[in-house]
Amino acid sequence: MYKKLYVLPLFLFLLVSCKNKTEDATTVGNSNPTETIAASSNPLPSWNDGTLKSDIIAYVEKVTKEGTPDFIPVEDRIATFDNDGTLWAEKPYVQELFAFYRVKKMVEANPALEQKQPFKAVVEKDKTFFEKGGDKALIELVAATHTGMTEDEFEKEAKDFFTGAIFPGKNVPLKQIRYQPQLELLNYLRANGFKTFIVTGGTVELVRAISADFYGIPKYQVVGTSFKYTFDDAANSIKREPALDLLDDKVGKPVGIQLHIGQRPVFACGNEGGAGDLAMLRYSSGSKYPSFQMIVNHNDSIREYSYQEKDNLSLNTAAKYKYHVISIKDDWKKVFPDK
Amino acid sequence: MYKKLYVLPLFLFLLVSCKNKTEDATTVGNSNPTETIAASSNPLPSWNDGTLKSDIIAYVEKVTKEGTPDFIPVEDRIATFDNDGTLWAEKPYVQELFAFYRVKKMVEANPALEQKQPFKAVVEKDKTFFEKGGDKALIELVAATHTGMTEDEFEKEAKDFFTGAIFPGKNVPLKQIRYQPQLELLNYLRANGFKTFIVTGGTVELVRAISADFYGIPKYQVVGTSFKYTFDDAANSIKREPALDLLDDKVGKPVGIQLHIGQRPVFACGNEGGAGDLAMLRYSSGSKYPSFQMIVNHNDSIREYSYQEKDNLSLNTAAKYKYHVISIKDDWKKVFPDK
Fold first, then answer.
1. Cβ neighbours for B86, distance < 8 A, ≥ 6 positions apart
2. By CB distance 3.0 to 4.6 Å, which of A201, A247, A260, B207 could disulfide with A223?
């Protein structure tokens, strides 16, 4: 069940529209979001005043008031956030940009690869190959571009990628596709004793490469999709094998949370679009403490994107279980950070 | 390779000598080790003055001095400690006491189990069953006693166990088998910006049940042996299946570290006895920063225990790679904490 990748439709879209924009080199700044806001009179300035903002603040104030029945001890204030579509934009997935970046570099280093699949299909923007090959072809691509190297090598590759990558369509460095209101929310939660975690469908090391710089979240507070590792004592290095270990999406998210965090989050935030976060929100809602679940609704075609699930599963589930819904259009005063 | 359990010899020893002492009920105190020591003039009072204590302090002072070539940024100050035999006594493993505790409770609840293996063998202290059955029989026991329940149920079981458990031979609550010098070392490292992690061969949730109370280490900073999980949406719970996911021992330790922490530790401490920590120390020694590796030598038959590996692999490897060795007899002024 964990072998199924979930990015095929967007991947195909990207294959046609991306046009290798990742080669532009723009250095990403180093401003640390943890430093920007502590406890101020308006801790969420990029959120419009309204019910949702009030609900968030009321929840945080309620559960941090010692001596009340709703009080949550600081060690149990666990907050989990999905990444793609929840903390930064997901059209396209950054993971796909990285796969393309790797294909380009690998083909440059070894031009013979251009004649081999799945590289050939990427270079030639051959939609049919991936349509026909389905998940198998896609796993082949991710495996070919993300594994077979040591962790140290991967880390360098990821760093180089993030230094230069430009987000297609918006023509900005990847740091500029983070959602400013969510950066404020992360800071606000931390200022109130919450530990903030990323729980991503993306591969864990790619997100770890930027989690501290982009979100103020240390590597060990990132849960994600992982490959199988082996340790080579002679080389003193970890190698990733081309086999998925955990697909941290859908029912894989509570599994990843249990494995890495070991307790239910009391605050969880995901997004509609691929229905990947419902199990995480459901798991959070089972906490013995008062808990808070929230889903980003991508309904702002002007400032961000507008896309909905065909069956509207995420928003229907939110209505059923009374999860909070972020309307980007109405709840966010500002979507992306200033440069 | 991860399916192999490593506790057979001690397990058999325990089967004969333990005598169900876990039934005694003694409430364990709540003193929090994180509160006891910050930065004092003698941060390691239970360590005898000598080369090793000086080396530890010199290392910490060296790598925390900003503006020097040896400086380690705070986010990279990762310290990993094995648990059994490194942070607390391992004769017998607490994990085994827990398995026996579970057998007793399960048989009480369902007396018919007494006639079924592997319960029968435990109840009748049948060494032969486990000798003949080897790893397979042992996995069967761990699976039967540690899985097939929800995480919430397991957490309650672990809590109940730790509240009453008494360590055989020493007749003290489990909190009293922690090593006082190591508690001071954990505090000293944290006071200097290190994040302290437990990397244990034991099952991760059992150690998480006491990591904050016993060691000041949050659940998400515990890496351990894990079973496969499934998420049940209708029941809104995680269940553990009777199949190992990762055996976090030997070469499994660097793998667990990469999966959970995502970076090499700069400080790592294990123990000789089962040669389980060598790969972790080796992985740490490959850090790009100055690093520190240390092995506890159990050579104090009076105050703790005296046991050595037949082939002396851990101490030989320590000599080969110049790891530091803790002689319990000579380096520790005091072994266990005051009551």
1. B179, B182, B269, B270, B271, B277, B296
2. A260
